[in-house]
Design goal:
It is built from 5 helices and no strands. It is 79% helix and 0% strand. The protein is flat and about 50 Å long. By secondary structure, the chain is mainly α. The protein has 2 domains: 25 residues; 92 residues, no CATH class.
């Protein structure tokens, strides 16, 4: 097996894993909602995601990747954006709304990333 073939096979396996785990979100959420209310479940998912992301950053890029280079106001603004998202997520706790919130979370993360890279007071055009 050549290096290119191994690389393609690994990428394919990762794609299958991501697809299967993404597809399992709705059934897993249904079962979890039988045992947890929405707020603790959202908190557990957020903590688990933060820990996983922190570990991946630390393993791949080292300790410097965990440093926050934001001013206090921008850091609080980003936190407010995320908190607002979770308030809407919790207030609309029907299954379709929960699925919509999950589907929108990549957009929230992308907007936070863009917001954190745009200098305050400067035009982006």
């Amino acid at each position: 097996m050549t290096r290119h073939t191994r690389h393609v096979a690994g990428a394919f396996a990762a794609m299958v894993f991501v697809g299967a785990s993404w597809g399992a979100n709705v059934p897993v959420t249904k079962v979890m909602l039988l045992h947890f209310t929405l707020i603790p479940m959202a908190a557990i998912r957020t903590v688990a995601a933060a820990v996983a992301l922190g570990l991946m950053l630390w393993m791949v890029e080292g300790v410097r990747a965990l440093r926050i280079d934001l001013g206090l106001l921008r850091f609080l603004g980003l936190g407010f954006i995320q908190a607002s998202f979770f308030v809407v997520y919790a207030a609309r706790s029907s299954p379709p709304a929960a699925c919509s919130a999950k589907a929108a979370s990549p957009s929230v993360v992308a907007s936070r990333s863009c917001y954190s890279r745009i200098p305050c007071g400067h035009s982006t055009v």
